[in-house]
Design a protein that fits this description.
4% strand; two-stranded antiparallel sheet; mainly alpha; Serine Threonine Protein Phosphatase 5, Tetratricopeptide repeat
Length: 943
């Protein structure tokens, strides 16, 4: 029956319609899910076959079960054959030049390569943008990624990026096995969210029912007279899995009665069907098929023949349809089930010798694939080679930044019962080292917890593994509640190993986490320093010094800069410089909080350089994120929202290091009156559980939330938020962190009938920051005193305090905070009857508007209207005619259009822009007319 043809698609009419509909209506993201052999690939191929020939580019990429650390390989595989569809290089987005090194086949069709970026995270994001731009250039296109369940984390991140912001002409189709993903998990990861302007569908494929099995078997056999008993028996034996139906039918003898299925000896699984097919092959073809099965991945002719086949046998296997040709001159099985069936049928001694030949062939390559070498060495029973290649593969992957592959390799070795017990400890500790410098931590946490439950670890290794687990939980995972006890327990177990215990105590000494007072963190820091003084360990000394410098800077200590100057940034040891990189990234974050922006930039440059030198991904990304906050504070708002969102897209496993992004997005939303967005972002920045989050950012988020409640007139909520946040600040005792909280909290308390509490807070804050080197805290104290004086109707004092705050913020610079303080000063002067106050409000409205703080600008204009001053809005910058030619929107209309596009009601728009509802109704009508749309739902945010 080897001549049985492949039938047309059977039993998938509705799924096929859905897939074709999505492919022809881009942008679209389609996930085709189902178990192995269910027909995912056939459905996709059938849909592609229904598309008009040449109508769109069809790009095919494949994920493999064994993968070497080549980031984004499946996507680059799909892009290699598109040269003929590309425009001239000068018509391409210049960013696509970043792909020259990845796609040498297209180098002549791409623009020049841009200069390399020092930061690997920035380089990665540029590559993502370049791929998206290249896909946009060849649109309309269908990008198909097969077997997404085997994708590496980098490929998932890239696909999530493309799916989140697909080019207008792209349909992204991915096939995957649901059972390999875990219940309820998206194959694109938890961070993936459907976009409202993109077609998003999931096409689940279930096993065929009896009727569909009858149609499939009938098409395969070209028979329409199959008995119901035969079909029922076939359905029972195959469970309706199309691939198994096909393989069994292909193995049938001439008779087609139900007993024929038993006589052929083919059970449900594929191995018997494949055994029958193999039995009809000549010996040379069997050797080639078995060699391909041993290799597991599609391989070239030379490798297959080296493992056990011949060129002639390979040709026979291809002609018989047992093996298939894949892209790039590689040969393998049509389906992983077929490969496994053949592999299982190979006798044990033959399998072992075949793996030995695979090791010998792979070792001789110019760039040996270490992951494959480790696999074949294990199957050959060569434990020493398995450990050597496996460890090298993990280290290579980690060095390339592919922490996920490194963890997978170690995971496979630790899960193997044949791994010698003495080798388990070092591998377990290697996991912690990988996580300490990478961004992928979830699997590391699971593995470390698993190995800690086993009894093969020595006491010392167990304690060190527990310390690694605690540090990863506290840092990368952001779960201090779980990480802190692990570190404490590890420190107790490491009492006889002061060097490791010192590292644990030093990690606990960082005051940004937990509710312990500053004094406790100082105590832990002193313990670490006492222990490290007794050890001759430069890396450990650097780690503890890094934490001491970070501690001093975060609390605004007068000696912080002196300690920072002693960091060993020029040490010849990579491990020592990696600790210095971590320190400089922390110093950048703390200096940003304190208002030392020139110093923060210096720390950032040095931290970025050292992180790139030493491969420290985690601190480098932390630096990127805190830079977003510095740019917000210093008034560099142009494009900041998009930069923050783009950076957040790359953080799939790291809730800790993205809180700055949510804080900035919350502040930006607050400045434009986007209340719901601001609340959501402030919650993400730490207000969902402030005592378990990064305290400095959580306190700043609380300050933003208080401002939001005050803007909406929710005074009771503002007071409650102020009380909760100031209690946390008081408990920690690091008062310089209150710079973005205390002025707002004082306003809420004072206007909420708690002027006495407000006055106490001002006095307490003044004592708390006394002697600290923290420009922002000093300016915030003047702003808080101004708020208290304004509430108490001491307008002369209020004007003086706000003026002092304005000047201090201007010097730093913090232009938005300076403008807010200037507004407080102007209000006080207006209350005093100062004739210059209206001009000050007009200037502030213009300044707020230039920054993009439309809500603040509208508030100042409202004051001018209330006192009878005519308000002239500035002409919009870059305004351009809309599609109906009715003319560009005015500045006010643009503000209204933005809020309409966000789904705000007229009443909500009136509250944000300090206008009457009737005025808003008039503006909305004008916006609809000028944009040439009939409904509010058709309005898009103005560019």
């Amino acid at each position: 029956m080897s001549g049985v043809p492949s039938p047309a698609l059977v039993g998938r009419a509705s799924e096929l319609r859905a897939l074709i509909n999505a492919m022809t209506r881009p942008p679209a993201v389609v996930l085709v899910e189902g178990e192995a052999g269910i027909g995912k690939t056939r459905l996709v191929r059938a849909a592609l076959g229904r598309l008009a020939s040449g109508d769109r580019a069809v790009l095919l990429g494949y994920c493999h079960q064994i993968r070497e650390p080549f980031p984004y390989g499946p996507v680059f595989e799909a892009l290699r054959d598109i040269a003929g569809r590309l425009p001239e290089p000068d018509a391409l987005n210049p960013v696509t030049g970043a792909l020259r090194g990845y796609l040498p086949e297209l180098s002549g069709a791409l623009p020049p390569s841009p200069p390399p970026l020092e930061d690997p995270r920035a380089e990665r994001h540029r590559v993502f943008r370049a791929i998206r731009a290249l896909l946009a250039a060849v649109a309309p296109a269908v990008l198909v990624i097969e077997d997404l369940h085997w994708a590496d984390d980098g490929t998932r991140d890239l696909l999530r990026f493309l799916a989140g912001q697909p080019p207008a002409g792209l349909a992204l189709v991915a096939t995957y096995r649901r059972e390999d993903q875990g219940a309820g998990r998206s194959p694109l990861g938890r961070a993936y969210r459907h976009q409202p302007d993109t077609t998003n569908i999931v096409v689940p494929l279930a096993p065929l029912d009896v009727s569909a099995v009858a149609s499939l078997a009938g098409a395969l056999l070209d028979r329409s007279d199959l008995s119901s008993r035969f079909v029922a028996r076939l359905h029972e034996r195959t469970a309706g899995i199309p691939f198994v139906v096909e393989e069994i039918v292909r193995s049938l003898p001439g008779a087609l009665d139900p007993d024929a299925l038993d006589r052929v000896g083919v059970p449900l699984l594929l191995r018997e069907a494949m055994a029958d097919r193999m039995a009809g092959l000549p010996a040379a073809a069997v050797g080639a098929v078995q060699a391909a099965a041993l290799l597991r991945l599609p391989a070239g002719e030379q490798l297959i023949t080296a493992v056990g086949g011949t060129s002639a046998g390979l040709g026979e296997a291809l002609r018989a349809g047992v093996l298939h040709e894949h892209a790039g001159g590689r040969y393998g099985f049509r389906h992983a089930l077929a490969q496994q069936a053949v592999y299982d049928a190979i006798p044990g001694p033959d399998r072992r010798s075949g793996h030995e030949r695979a090791v010998a062939a792979l070792v001789g390559m110019d760039s040996p694939p270490l992951v494959q070498l480790a696999f074949h060495a294990r199957q050959a029973g060569d434990t020493e080679a398995w450990l050597r290649h496996g460890t090298a593969a993990a280290q290579q992957a980690a060095a390339l930044g592919d922490t996920a592959v490194a963890v997978e390799v170690i995971e496979g070795m630790l899960d193997d019962p044949e791994l010698p017990a003495p080798e388990r400890g070092p591998l377990a500790l290697m996991l912690g080292r990988f996580a300490a410098t990478g961004l992928s931590h979830q699997r590391v946490v699971r593995l470390l917890r698993h190995v800690l439950r086993d009894d093969f670890l020595s006491r010392d290794v167990r304690a060190e593994a527990r310390l690694s687990l605690g540090v990863v939980l506290s840092n990368q995972a952001g779960d201090t509640a779980a990480g802190r006890p692990e570190i404490m327990a590890a420190c107790a177990e490491l009492s006889h190993r002061p060097t490791l215990a010192a590292r644990g105590w030093a990690s606990l000494a960082m005051p940004g986490w937990g509710v312990e007072p500053l004094a406790k963190h100082r105590e832990w820091m002193e313990r670490a320093e006492a222990l490290v003084a007794t050890a001759d360990n430069p890396e450990l000394a650097a780690a503890v010094l890094a934490n001491r410098a970070s501690l001093e800077m975060t609390i605004g200590s007068p000696r912080a800069f002196a300690v920072a100057a002693t960091l060993p940034s020029g040490d010849p040891s990579t491990a020592v410089r990696r600790e210095a990189a971590r320190a400089y990234c922390n110093l950048h974050d703390s200096a940003t909080t304190l208002g030392h922006y020139a110093a923060a930039e210096r720390f950032g440059r040095e931290g970025r350089r050292l992180a790139a030198e030493t491969g420290a991904q985690y601190p480098a990304y932390l630096l990127d994120v805190s830079t977003i906050r510095r740019e917000w504070l210093t008034g560099r708002w142009e494009g900041l929202r998009d930069r923050a969102v783009a950076l957040g897209e790359l953080a799939t496993e790291t809730p800790l290091i993205v809180v700055d992004l949510w804080l900035v997005l919350g502040w930006l939303a607050l400045a434009t009156g986007e209340w719901d967005e601001a609340i959501r972002h402030f919650q993400g920045a730490g207000l969902d559980a402030p005592e378990a989050r990064y305290v400095p950012v959580a306190l700043a988020a609380a300050g933003g939330m208080i401002e939001l409640h005050l803007a909406r007139g929710a005074l009771d909520r503002a007071v409650a938020e102020a009380e909760q946040a100031t209690n946390l600040l008081r408990r920690k005792g690091v008062w310089v962190w209150g710079a973005y909280l205390v002025p707002s909290a004082v306003s809420a308390m004072a206007w909420g009938g708690r002027a006495g509490r407000a006055a106490e807070l001002v006095a307490e804050y003044a004592r708390g920051i006394a002697g600290r080197v923290a420009p922002t805290a000093g300016a915030a104290l003047d702003a808080a005193r101004g708020a208290l004086a304004a509430c108490e109707r001491r307008h002369t004092d209020a004007a003086a305090y706000y003026a002092a705050a304005r000047e201090a913020y201007t010097v730093m610079p913090q232009p938005y905070a300076a403008a807010r303080a200037g507004e407080g000063e102007a209000r006080a002067r207006l209350a005093l009857g100062d004739a210059a106050a209206p001009a000050a409000f007009a200037e502030l409205a213009e300044r707020f508007g230039e920054m993009g703080a439309t809500h603040d600008a509208a508030r100042c204009r409202r004051v001018l209207r209330d006192i009878g001053v005519e308000v002239h809005l500035p002409r919009p910058r870059g305004g351009r005619p809309h599609r109906n030619g009715a003319g560009a929107l005015s500045q006010r209309e643009r503000e209204v259009a933005r809020l309409v596009a966000l789904g705000r009601t007229n009443r909500e728009i009136a509250d944000v822009l300090f206008l009457s509802r009737r005025t808003v109704e008039s503006h909305v009508a004008t916006v609809l007319r000028k944009l040439g749309v009939r409904s509010r739902t058709e309005v898009t945010p103005p560019v």
